[in-house]
From TrEMBL:
Residues 3-89 form the Acylphosphatase-like domain. InterPro entries: Acylphosphatase (IPR020456), Acylphosphatase-like_dom (IPR001792), Acylphosphatase-like_dom_sf (IPR036046). Pfam families: Acylphosphatase. Keywords: Hydrolase. Its EC number is 3.6.1.7. The active site is at 18, 36. The lineage of its organism: Bacteria, Bacillati, Actinomycetota, Actinomycetes, Micrococcales. Belongs to the acylphosphatase family. This is acylphosphatase.
Length: 89
C-alpha cells in the first residue's frame, strides 16, 4: 500500500476539480481526501496500491474539462489504512 500527498496548482478551483476527482477516485478504488486551499491550489492525499495511485495521478495532472493544471507536486506520505474518499471543506 502506498500513500501520497499532492498539491495541484493552476486554474483548479471553481471548475469541478474536487468532485470530479472524487468520482475518479471511487472508480479507480483509491482512499483519501481532496480539498481547496486558500492559496488557490487543490490539495489531496490518496492511498492505494501503486498502479492505482499512478492512474489517479495521471488524471490529476490533466484535471477535468475547464481546468488548467500548471503543476502537481507529489510527496510520499505514511499509509493510514484509510477507507473511502472524501471531499473536505
Amino acid at each position: 500500500m502506498k500513500r501520497v500527498h499532492v498539491t495541484v496548482s493552476g486554474d483548479v478551483q471553481g471548475v469541478g476539480y474536487r468532485y470530479t476527482m472524487r468520482m475518479i477516485a471511487v472508480e479507480v478504488g483509491v482512499a483519501g481526501w481532496v480539498r481547496n486551499r486558500r492559496d488557490g491550489t487543490v490539495e489531496a492525499e490518496i492511498e492505494a496500491p501503486p498502479a492505482q495511485i499512478d492512474e489517479v495521478l495521471a488524471w490529476m495532472a490533466a484535471g477535468p474539462p475547464g481546468a488548467r493544471v500548471d503543476s502537481a507536486r507529489v510527496t510520499d506520505a505514511a499509509p493510514t489504512g484509510e477507507r473511502g474518499f472524501r471531499v473536505l471543506d
